[in-house]
Amino acid sequence: MSDIKSIIKKIDHLTPIPQVASKVMSIAEDPKSSMYDLSKVIIYDTAVTANLLKVVNSAYFGLPEKVDSVHQAIVYLGMAQVVDLVLLSASGENLQTAQEGYDLEAGELWKYSVSSAILARELAEKKGVKETHLIFTAALLKDIGKVILNQYVKDSFDKINALVTKQNFTFREAEKEVIGIDHAELGGMVAENWKFSPKMVEIIRHHHRPQEASISEFESAIVYMADTICMMMGIGVGSDGLAYRFHREVVESLELTESEFQKIIAGFVEKVKQLEAMMNI
Amino acid sequence: MKVTNDIKATLVTYSLGSCIGVAIYDSVARVGGLLHYMLPESSLDKEKARKNPYMFADTGIPALFKAAYKLGAKKQRMKVIVVGGSQVLDQKGLFNIGKRNDIAVRKMFHKNNVIIDYKDIGGTVNRTIKIAVNNGDTWIKVSGKGERKI
Lengths: 281, 150
Prior knowledge:
Strand order of the largest sheet of chain B: 1-4-3-5-6
CATH architecture of chain B: 2-Layer Sandwich
Number of domains of chain B: 1
Structural class of chain A: mainly alpha
Number of strands of chain B: 9
Oligomer: heterodimer
């Protein structure tokens, strides 16, 4: 078993999420805030602004003219969408790298993260959940723990894989058994370290076991569902494969019938191609 | 879905998850085809099936074979390979799309007297399949476990 303290210490090696991310989230949650408040916060971060404008001008949105200011982006896409895009631009750095332990090439974990964030947001809207930005961000960052655990998974892959293939462990359970900590638990610690809200920390920590969440069970269930669908569609799936548990009671808690479940899949696969166009920039 | 007689082409479909990849090859006509479908039945959404028949087993598989016949391939010479259909653990009943995708292709092939030459289906692994149109050589890559020629 690895030294867990030294693993946790590696949280400090991650590129911290820019301050603009938490600022836009609090603006999004404040009903009194205006688009001017939002654009004022964004334009101070030049890197995020540049990234945001690139994404806004990508084929994914198909806007009729070139957008060259944050203000214009908000006019075209609305505050909610721009907030999500800022969160996207602010989160990419850690998640875009290759994760050899999980057999993910550069960009694959990112694609997975963005896809599940977009799907989670759609599900949240469908289910009338107000905190869509919370769900979007949690889904986007839920696998941040993998970025740290990657090296340890690489070193212990054979042991982890043996538990999965021979003893019906999930990949996460096998990580915990072999390394002493799993990527969801570690992701929760990263979220804490970055001073995210307790709800966000919980969703990330319980994204494979939403029924164990206490203050955000429904939100965790949505992120879990989006994650499961992405896995089934093979989006950014690596050496952990689909070796996670399907919790039927969670699907039922979201009141999703089997046919709705399939319709979500059908609707989503059509979007993935456009998503690629957005992410390849 | 892609079907071609361009012998320089290599067809590949990545990261199947619960989806299924069907590869076909006629070594006489030198025609290869590859389909990646996601769901078993087009009755789920007729409009989507019309726009993208390759999304479903029951519309995608006939489209794959018909496209190959158009290029001179014959059913009795066809090598058929089926991969994918993985399952999330404990995924039972109707929600088990990987298994239903597998049943869908087997049913269709049984009804139409198509014999599967090679299959690698189910489990929890993620697969990618590649076929060279030049000679029908086929490779399956399993995430975390490398690529092998079959």
